[in-house]
Every structure is written in C-alpha cells, then in structure tokens.
Write a structure and sequence with these properties.
The chain is of the alpha/beta class. It is built from four helices and eight strands, in the order ββαββαβαβαββ. It folds into two domains: 71 residues, Translation initiation factor 3 (IF-3), N-terminal domain (Ubiquitin-like (UB roll), Roll), CATH 3.10.20.80; 84 residues, 2-Layer Sandwich (Translation Initiation Factor IF3). 35% of the residues lie in helices and 29% in strands. The strands form two sheets. Strands 2-1-4-3 form a four-stranded mixed beta sheet. A four-stranded mixed beta sheet has the order 5-6-8-7, covered by helices on one side. The chain is rod-shaped and about 85 Å long. Belongs to the IF-3 family. InterPro entries: T_IF-3_C_sf, T_IF-3_N_sf, Translation_initiation_fac3_CS, Translation_initiation_fac_3, Translation_initiation_fac_3_C, Translation_initiation_fac_3_N. Keywords: Cytoplasm, Initiation factor, Protein biosynthesis.
C-alpha cells in the first residue's frame, strides 16, 4: 500500500478518518488534510479511477491487520496424514486395535493412509489384502470416505487413503 508522498497520481477520491466520503480532490490537498489531522493518507484501492485514498493511522492499521492474521492462523486446522499398517494375516484382536486407532485419527479430522504390507509368499495372495482393505472401508463407511482406492500394488504394499466425512 502506498501512503503519503508515495502517491504520485494528481487526483484521488478521499475518505476521511470518520469513514465519510469527501469526494475527488487533488492529492496535495488530501495530503494537507491528513497532516492537519496528524494521520496518514493511505491508498486503499489503487486500481479504481481515480484511486481511493483514506485518512488513517497507518501504524495502527498495520497492527490490526497483523492481529487479524494471527487470529485466523490460530483457528486453522492442519490436516495430517496418519498411517495404519496391516498384514494380510492380521488376527482379529490386532485388527480391532488398529481399527480403534484409525477411528481416533479420523475423529480428530486427519486423513488416514491404510497400508497392507506383504512379505515373502504373501505376495501370491493379493486378494487377501484387497479383502482386508474392503473390510476396513466397510467398517468406517459412516465416519470416512475412501479418497483413493487401491488401484495396484506399489512394490510390496497395497495402499488406500481415507478422509473424514465433512458434516457440512
């Protein structure tokens, strides 16, 4: 934002410190009004013809903008990618524990990467891995959506991506 002597355009549309529109006037006259008030002349809308300028305390304005950005950043929720690993022959008890963790991650609003790891002769039974992924997707269908289905093997891994359902 340009302010005070940085504004080189001969005419500007002026808004005073109270927010009232004064009208189109010479930049020099607008600068004098700002100096009399002990404030700055700040170019608000440079693309307008003539550009819109406002009389304000520029330091206070910058401070308030920084505060607003901090508040907006505080309210943001970063979505993380969590991972839960299974094997094709994972027993029922271990499966339930891993599903509990998976649900906890989804409830926290994170995406979950479900990985089936194959070792040795397990690679011959890829259908067991895809059945397990189908079972996982079926068990969490109320809380999550499948964002990426396991299209093919990636080395010794079969991967599926789950994302929490939006309640909006």
């Amino acid at each position: 934002m340009r302010r005070n002597q940085q504004i080189k355009i001969p005419e500007v549309r002026l808004i005073d410190q109270n927010g009232d529109q004064v009208g189109v006037m010479a930049t020099d006259e607008a600068l004098k009004r700002a100096e009399e008030a002990g404030l700055d002349l700040v170019e608000i809308s440079p693309k307008a013809r003539p550009p819109v300028c406002k009389i304000m305390d520029y330091g206070k304005f910058k401070f308030e903008q920084a505060k607003k950005q901090q508040q907006a950043k505080k309210k943001q929720k970063k979505v993380q990618l969590k991972e839960v690993k299974f094997r094709p022959n994972t027993d029922e008890g271990d499966f339930q524990v891993k599903m509990k963790n998976l649900r906890k991650f989804i409830d926290q609003g994170n995406k979950v990467k479900v990985t089936i790891m194959f070792r040795g002769r397990e690679l011959a039974h890829r259908e067991l891995g895809s059945q397990m992924l189908d079972r996982v997707a079926e068990e969490v269908q109320d809380e999550a959506v499948v964002e990426q289905r396991p299209a093919k093997m990636e080395g010794r891994f079969m991967i599926m991506l789950l994302a929490p359902k939006s309640d909006k």
